[in-house]
Amino acid sequence: EIYDYLRLLFARIGIMHCVDCGTGISTQTVDEIVDAVMRLPEGHRVMLMAPMVRERRGAHQEVLQSIREAQLIRARVDGEIYLLEDVPPLAVRKNHTIEAIVDRLVIKPGIETRLQDSIETALRLSGQTVLVASQGKNVRDSSNNGFDEQLLSTAMACPDCGFSFPEIETRTFSFNSPLGACAHCDGTGRVEDEAGIEITCPECGGSRLGPQAHAVKIKGLNIVELCSQPLSDALEWYDSLLDGLDPVHKRIAEPIRLELIRRTKYLIRVGVAYLTMNRAAETLSGGELQRVRLATNIGSGLTGVCYVLDEPSIGLHPADHDRLIDCMRDLREGGNTLVVVEHDEATMRAADCLVDVGPAAGRLGGQIIAKGTPKEVSDDQSSLTGAYLRGERSVPVPADRRTSKKRMKLTEVRTHNLDAVTVEFPLGTLIGIAGVSGSGKSSLINETLYPALAEKLGVVAPAPGPHKRLTGHQSIDKLIPIDQSPIGRSSRSCPATYSGVLDEIRKVFAATRGAKVRGFAANRFSFNSPAGRCQLCKGHGNERIEMNFLSDLWIRCSRCGGKRFNRQTLQVRFKGASIADVLEMSIGEAAEFFENVPRVKRLLDSLVDVGLGYVHLGQPSTTLSGGEAQRIKLGTELARVATGKTLYLLDEPTTGLHFADIERLVAVLQRLVDSGNTAIVIEHNLELLAACDHLIEMGPNGGREGGKLVAEGTPEHLAECETATGRFLRGYLQSR
Fold this sequence. Notes:
The chain is an alpha+beta fold. The chain has 26 helices and 27 strands.
């Protein structure tokens, strides 16, 4: 709701500026103008003028005549005061400025009636604008020198250009309203160029707001500029908002300012101070989005609510965990209940009640193994989680760290907040990229190193962020980015199709006696093949029921019962199981089922090795978490023959992983590096960072306060540094 309050603030105290010339425009009633003049010190001399011509060519005889008809006797022409009969002829081809002098008076009690009459005359002559020029009582210069001038108006119009503007409303700053949306892009921020490619709108610069919203400013900033600042910077702006405001604007702004400060502080407390206020929601990670929601609920003041949070620590540096836990405690102290699904050790230890579910995953799980206080679960010998909490089991810390003389060097990177950073990556090692949220890790690796190296290897990738050069890449011949993006967006996509294991399984079924008798080739066992799939659901396993103005309804296919294949295809069996039965198996079960088929077994074992034994082979990819999708990619790559010169890039691969899964993941990464490959991992998890050969820490903070290389070296070296990661790594290594 921060933006709602900002819209209110700018609508109530914002100053409109002409979109053409930038002149400040304010609108006041006649009484307010009288009050403003009467606030001048007593004894000040005031001259009230009606602006008639502003920097316009011509002789303007008709203007001078209109002043005479108003029974006025003086005018200021091009800055000089004349009696009307003494005004010199004006050059037709030159720009001129003419103001009718309506009255001259001295500020003292009792002049209010005369002042109001004179102001109304000026407003009537000029079209709702009056120029108030004031002099100190000891100044006797009758020219323009020595005057302080203030242009006041009862209309929202530029006195210089003559452009008029509608009244400022909260809708002026809403891109969902026709009043505020950019007319060029209809408030979307994007348009299509001549080639049909979507680009940032050239009119609004992607802000989605029209020119009027950009023209309203408070203390030199418009709402777009303010929302482009990180939350931490915005909080400083709110703190100093009242400085320099007049008493009326202070009274208006104060309650709005307090709400802005309160909400922003909650967001900063949950660890997202580096986010800009205009950051699109779809660009936030799952953890960031959860923490924004958490801050919103803390600020709501509700009580008696049950909150369910799914891994809120995702993407959060250990330095921010305490603040997140404090926020959750605030909700608890407010009379609420929090149920938190979490793998983070600090969160587990902070819980009032800890529930350990297991003993394993998938069909081997589903039982309550232990329940109680963290200490009680830690002491429970049957709990795998307890074994890690009491230190009986842990992710191994290597006794020796790999070193390498071969180095890849990225020079003077300036992507986003990176401050001309130069980084060296020792090849043939496991490299961890650490740092608080927003410190520049993704900017360095995902947006600069990856596309720069892809460019060198001839791989299609986005343009790299600004940097000087990349050297030492000759020892890399293959680049494998493994992120958390979905492995597919349809129900037909699943782990079996993405990993390629279904291709091998289809060959197995095609080689059976039943398939040969029926003349079925391998493609018959694909739910993408018209010959083998159920014709009613087209291989989806579900039917779509159109509900007109309601959302479409999906139900299990009435013909195939969700098996996806037609009856003839399902009659072919391998070891008593149909192709549909195989897809219903977990990856672990399938690995045992195909133990005598080496090509299938190798692919499935690699997926089991990365902790995915519980996932079903045919599970739709749309139901997989980001961490699961990333591990499917990793397992698939693990099954391929590595060149020994491959660079793997992973972005927080421990997301959603239990201690035991992290132990398994670390073993897989070490195996990849033992083969001569290089793995670069962006990570916050201390278990994985401690297992790395070389660490690179960005910081010292997030956003504008980040973007620097603050430390690099072995985990032991970083543990000696007084950095955000170093302090936590020190405690972790000492406990092992």
